[in-house]
Structure formats: structure tokens, C-alpha cells
Amino acid sequence: MKLVKINLVNHDNCNVRDAKVLKMSYPELDWRASFQQDFKARKSLFEASLLSRKSIRLSISPTIFSDVSRSNKFQFISRLIPNLSEVAQLEAILWRNGINKDQLTQLDPLPQLISTESFLPIEWFDDYDYDPMSVERWLSIEGLEGFALVQDSESREWTWTPVSVVDYDAEKLRWIVEVGGQVWEIPRIRLYLLYEDPGQYSKRILFAVEQRNYAENYLRYSYLSRLVDVGEYFEMIESTRDRLIERSSPDVFEAFNAVYRRFHIGLSMNVCLEQNEWLNIQPVHMVCYKSQPFCVDELRALYSFGERFALIKRIILLSHPAVYNALRLVHYECDVVREMSLFVTEFPEPQTLAAFKEANEEQLGKVMQYLQNAWIERTTMQVHKSLLNVGRGWFNISITSWTIYQFMKLYRLIEQIKHRMQAALRDLVLTSTDVFCHRLCDPCELTLPIDENYSWEGSLIESPFESHKTPVFYLLLHMGEQAPYFSTDPDEFLPCLETLFVEFVEQTHDVHLIDPSLFGSLIFAPNLFLSSMGLRDPTIRGRRDHLRMSYRQCVIPLKAYAARYTEFKTLFFTNITEYVEDVKSTKTSLQVKEEISLQIRMRESLERTLPLSIVIGSFWIDVLPLRTALIQKRADLTAALLKMLTERLRDKTSDIVFDYNEIIERMCEKPASIEHIYEIHEFMDTIPELLQQLEERMKTVVFEYEILDHFRYALPDADFYQKWTALGMPKAILNQIESVHEFHEGEVDKFRKQQVSDEAGFASRVEEINVHISKFTTVYDVAKVTEVSIEVKKLWKTINELFQYGETLNKRQELFEMAAIDLSSLVELKESFVGYKNMWIFAAEYSNVEESWRKNPISSVETEVVARTLFHYKKCFGDLLDLFEDQPQIQNVIRTFLARVEQFEPHIAIIELLQHPLLEPIHWNQLAKAAGIKVKLSVAANFELFLENHIEQHSELLRDIIAKAEEQKEELERIKAAEEEKRRKVEEFNRNRELRRLKRTEI
């Protein structure tokens, strides 16, 4: 048996990792506080040892390594020659020495008391005496390489990989290496450098593994020993204690008594561990005070362990693997509860009180459903499954007697499970209420110092109560008839939140014990519940009081802020119609101007002083709807006043224009007699005085229009035209007076002079039209064919109208027995203009027709109509060439359009090809691909598209495609005919066979 030397005084000075990794399921011991207190000292010793790069050894070390000297570890490197060249060689050496990757990488995330899984990092036990060179010497080697055990980022597998050494981090004690462009920080024990001995590297790993195994075993042994160290079971006998007290001081006695207890507990524990191999903890054999080692047999000869071992079995619950397994599973279920939360406090955005309450009630329902059902069922199932096969004895779950049950270890085990579950339940309440109160109360910290008489005196935009914490609740500010109010009454928050707090804490008392569901043979009271945190608990009561105080204070500035908006109540409820009518009936135009200016200033003030939103404590207040409504009300009042002023001016201007129109209508009446003419003349003498009166009225109206211009108000078009019509009326009327006088003179002599004036007017018009035609016939711009043709039609119409008017005058000449008017010049003018008119009209018509052929789809173009039309215009333009043979410029115009006609003639054949009925989409694609056309072609495309892609250059290709299509059609028809012939023959054969069968039947 392996003997172990142990230092009873310094047995706790072993290097361990963080306490979070060592959260073991130890029963009957609150090990966390004592362990973390010892951990600080252990960690400081470990870090000091690493920083000095000394050999890291446990103060408790097996004797198998006690004789290892530095000479056996030291490597002398005379030449820098790599010992290995491939990763496979290193893996083979490590495998032969019994080393695998799991020993260097895997750690148990939740270490257990009797587990064999490692939970301490291997690098904590690395012995730097195995390193042949210092760090500085290694880094001085250029291009230093090695093999490192790294984890792949995708597959998460650990593999030995060739690496290049980059640097060394002295603070972290990590080697910095580069692997495929990635930089890793590797501990030395997972890094093999090519120049060191692989055998020594294997010993280095084995030494670290052995040291870690012993340290983990001793940690488990040490905490298991503490489970036994209870009561006075291991005290000295009274006679020995009395003699020691008489012969020594109290300090010496206490020190010796502690050593005595630990020594005898260790001796008893070793026997217990040998009897219970399922614990997977190796005994740590003790020595006497003279440090002489004894084996177990020698110790048994000196001491009697029967009573001690029986005592341990009576004291400790861990007398069967099933008990430990049950406690481990219960601990796991309790940790699940600890991770839960009774409240929901984190939201992506502020919530209304109703939404907040609904979310938390839903969360409580889920949590309580789990606590009252799933948690109890799962815990009962785990305990029942673990203890089911234990059978009769201390942990017989089939017990039927209450008296016996209360004296069994099972009773203690169930009590401990109850306390564990209660502790988990209390932790859940403490954690949940802490998060709840902090989340809700932290934003309210700035409101705590204010008193109840606080009034909001500062700006409405800047909040002195805006915390760096995110607000929790959402409020919308409204304007009420009595006072401003929020979408949710601020006084509702405190009762609601306090009710949630109280109900949630109270409901955690409704979780049953597992006893009734675990023991079916015993009778339990129906009101057995786990004990949770009560409302009178100081912590819960303090948090509740803090919540109450926070929201009692936070509501004060909230109400004060809403009260500030009372000043806008009158504006908010102002009736626009009544307001405008009041202004209209009581104020002049200048006063209206001042009122409009006031409304504009007040609107701008609202835009500057009212916020979109504001934060007060834990409340996010949405002011935007109210702000928008107030600003819009000011804007509506301004617009209503401007509209009222506009309507007022419209009525005044309309009256003035009406008076002007009356003057014009009376002045321009058609006289029926000479007396009527003189009456109109008398009225016309009074017109200047009437105009002066109306102009005075209009000046006052123009002054009021300037008010609208001051506010840059855009008048409606009708009002704008009416205003300027009224301003221009006087001049128009004065001009009209002269026309009326002239008109009256003509009326007096109209029967006598009308004919003469008409004759003179006719001659003048003939001369004018002749001059106009002379200028117009010099136009030769082909690009303006449409405009010229329109003008030609107008001229032709004017000539015809003038010719008819001349004939009418000749008829009147005959009636007045006057000589007839000579119309020969007008006839010659008409005959000379016919050819010019036809040229431009034909040109315009042909341009429109050709454009329709180009723009319309190919399928809608009729080639016969195109051919007839081309022939017609070709003949027309040809006749015009002969007519204008002495005018070369006009002939050039005609030749231009004649050339367009001749140029389009070859396109008829292309159009006929494109309209071929056999062209399918596949043929269009072939044509587009062969011709290099990138757009989709079809019979629905217009001819312009084909012309733009120069389809005339691919006519042969188009004919070939059509020919192939026809061949395919003929082939299909031939195949179809052959199939039809075959089908016909088959039918005829079947019919003849049926006839033969019928004949045989008759025979």
C-alpha cells in the first residue's frame, strides 16, 4: 500500500481553481463560506509561485515523487536540432505513456463529491523544472516552432497542431502562438517545443496529472471529513482531558485537542472509505506525532475502530450511494429554481401599467405552475428513483410507522431536502424582489428628496428627474375638461405594484412538501407547505417600504408636470367658429392683423417650449399628441382669421366689381333709336364722377389686402383675379367710352356708310392675306411639316371665308345698285395656293401614316393598305414635282418626302415576313440571338424596334427561319398523316377481325 506523508497543520494550502467551479453538492454542510475564505490565501500563493516561475507543487505530495531530483528532470540541449518532425510522432509517444487529450483539456463544469472527473486545470500543477531553458532563451531562438493542443473554432475538437511561437505573456503565464493565421494563448503544458525531449515532456504531463489527481482527491477527502466532525463524538476521554488541563495552559490544550480530533477523525475516515469503495475517494493515511509512518494494519493493532466506524455510519448520511445521488439531483432541481424569476422587468420599450401587470401575472403563473407541479414532481421522482432499490434500513421509503420514521436517517434526509428546497425558494424570492425593486426604484432616486408641495417651475422640456436608468412605464398626456391627465392615473401605480409585490411573495408559500407524494404509506396533513420569505421579513419589508416610498415620491413631480399644462386648457377647448365670429363682429381689420400676429407668436412659442416626450423618474411621458394638437389649434385659429379676412375682402371687392359692371352694361347697351343714343351720352357724362367714388372705396380694400400680403397669405385664384379686375376697371371703362362714341357714330351712318366700309375692309383683308401668303410660301423647313401644314389649313380656311364674304358683298352691291367688286385677284390667289397647300398637307398626312406603321404592333399592320397608301402618295408627290418645276426649293421638299415613300416600300416585304403565322417564340428567340438583338421579340412588338436593330440586314436569316418552320410544319403534318393512316388501318383491321369473329359465331 502506498504510504503518504501529511502535514496536519498546513493541509489546506493546496492550489485550487475558482470557487464557482467547485460548487459541489455537499450535504449537511454550508461549505461555501469557509471554502471561499480559504480560497483567497490559496490563490495568492499560487499566483506568487507562477509569477516566479518556480516549480508548482502541492504541500501535500505523494512520496512516489518525493525522491525526484532536478538531475532527472533537467535536459541539456547542446544543439538546436528538432527531436520530432510530425504531430503523429508526438501523439504516439504520449499514447505509449498513457496520456490522452482529455487529461489536458476536459473539466467537469459541476464537480461532485464522489465523481472521478477532474475539475482543476492541469496547468496549475505544471512543474517548470522540466523546462530545459528559460523563457528568454526560448524566445531568442529564431523561428521557434512546436506542437500545441488547440481547440477548433468550428468543430470544437481538441487537436495537436503545428504552431509558430510569437511571444510570451508573463502576467497570464501563457505562450502566444500562431496557428493558420489565428493567434492563441497556450499554457506551457499544452505546448511541446521541437527542441525538447518528448520523453521528458511526457513525464512532465504525467507529473502534473498525478499531482492534480491527488489534490482533487484530498479536497474531496477534506470536505467529507468535515461532515463527520460534528458534536462531541471524537473528544478525548475525561481522564486524559483532565490530566492535560491540569498540566498545560488552556491555549496548549485547545491546540492539542484540535490535533487529536482531526487525527482520530482521519483514522476513522480511512476505514470508512475502505469499506465504501463507491465513494471513489482514496484514504489519506495518518502518521503518529513522531512522524513515523504506519500502514493501516499497524494502526488497527493500536486502535479499535469498530465503535468509531459504527459512530460514523450513524452520524453521516452518506452511508449509501443512493443518498448522495438523491441529494445531487435535488441540488440540481433547486439550482433550476434559483435561476428563475418571479417578475418580468426588462422590456424593449416602456410599457403601460396594464401591459406591465399582464406580463408579470403571466410570468408568475408560469413560475408557480412549475413550482407547484413540475418542481415537486421532478424532485419526488428523483428521490424516489434514487432510494427505491435501497430496501429495508435507514432509507426505506416504504416505511409505514411514523414513530420509526422519525428515528430513521430518512427523516433527516427528507428534512435536509426540505431545507434545500426552502433555501432555493427563498433565494428565488430574494433575487426576484431585488431585481424588481432595483429596476423599478432606481430611476426614482432623484425624486426622493422633494416634498409633497413641489411645483414644476422650470422648463417643460428639461427634466431634473431623468435618471441614467431606462424608464419602465409609458404614459400619454391628455387634456381634460377639468385639468390635464395621464392615460393611466399616477395614483394607480403604487397600489398595483405593491399588490404585485405582495401577491407574488405570498404565492411562494403555496408550494407543497414532497413528503406526501414520496411516502404513500404515511398520512400527512393537507396544509404542509415549504417555508418561503414572509412579508414581515426585514429584507422583504425593507424592499416593500422602499418601493412604496419611491412611487409615492415619483408621483409628486408627475402630477406637478401635468398641472403646468392647465394654462393650455383654454386654447385646447377653444371653438374656432365662435372665436372667428367674435373677432369678425368686434374688431377692425387692423385689430384682426394684431390678433393674427399674436396667434403666430404663440404657435412659435409652443414649438419652442413643449417637448415631444419627457422622462420623470421611471415614467416615459409622451407629450407629442397634445403638443401637436395645441400647435395645430394655434395654426387653425390663424388660418381661420386669414380666411375670415379674405371672405370679408372678397365681399367688398365683389360689390365694387358689380358696380363697375353695371356702368359697363348700361354704357354698352345697343341703341334702338337716336333718342336712346343721346340718353346713353348723358349717362356717359356722369361716368368720371362715379369712377372716382368707386376708386376711393377700392383704396380701403387694397389697404386690407396688404394685411394678407404681410402674412404671405396666398389668395385663391378667383380672389386674386377679382382684385386686379377691380383695379383695372376704371381704365378699361375710360377706354370703352371712346369705343362707344365711335360705335354710336357708326350706328348713325351705318346704313349709309356700312357698305363702303365693308368694301374697304374686304380689299384690305385681301391685301393682307396676299402679303401673308407671299411670306409663308418661302418656308421650306421639312422638320416643321406638322406646324406648316396646320398653318396652311388655317390660311386655306381664311381664303375660303374671304371668298364667301366677297360673294356676299357683291350681292349687297347689287341691292344698292352699285358696281360689283372684282374677285379675280382672290381667285388667282386661291388657285396659286392650291399646289402649295396640297404639298404640305400630303407631307403631314404621310408623316402621320408612316409613324403609325412604325409605332403600331407588327400584327396590326396591313401590308395591302400600306402598299396602296404608298402608291397614292408616290403619285401625288410625283404630280407636284411637275407643278413646281420652276421652283427648285419646293421640289427639294417634295423629293424629300418622295424619297421617304420610296425608302419605305422595301419594308413591306420585311413586314410580311415578320407576320408569317408559323413564327413561334422559339423562332423569335433564334432571330434575336442570331441578329444580336438583346430585347424580347414577338409579333406584338412595333416595327420601329426592328428598324432600330437593322432587321433588313437579316432578311435572309428570317427567310431561313421561316423555311425551317415550314419544313417542320410539313414534317409534323406528314407524321400526323402517317399516324392517322396507321390508326385507320388498325381500326379497319380490328373491324374486319370483329366481323370474322361474328361470322364464326354464326356458323
Question: What do you see in this structure?
Answer:
With 1003 residues, the chain is mainly alpha-helical. The chain has 33 helices and 9 strands. The chain has a 5-stranded antiparallel sheet with strand order 4-3-2-1-5. The chain has a 4-stranded mixed sheet with strand order 7-6-9-8. The termini are far apart.
Please list the strands of the largest sheet in the order they lie side by side: 4-3-2-1-5
Give me the Rg, rounded: 57 Å
Shape: elongated
Main sheet makeup: 5 strands, antiparallel
Helical run tally: 33
Structural class: mainly alpha
Report the end-to-end length measured between terminal Cα atoms: 115 Å
What ranges have pLDDT less than 50 throughout 5 or more consecutive residues? 1-70, 288-296, 298-303
Instruction: Output mean pLDDT.
Output: 78
Count of strand segments: 9
Beta content:
5-15%
What percent of residues adopt helix (DSSP H or I)? 55-70%
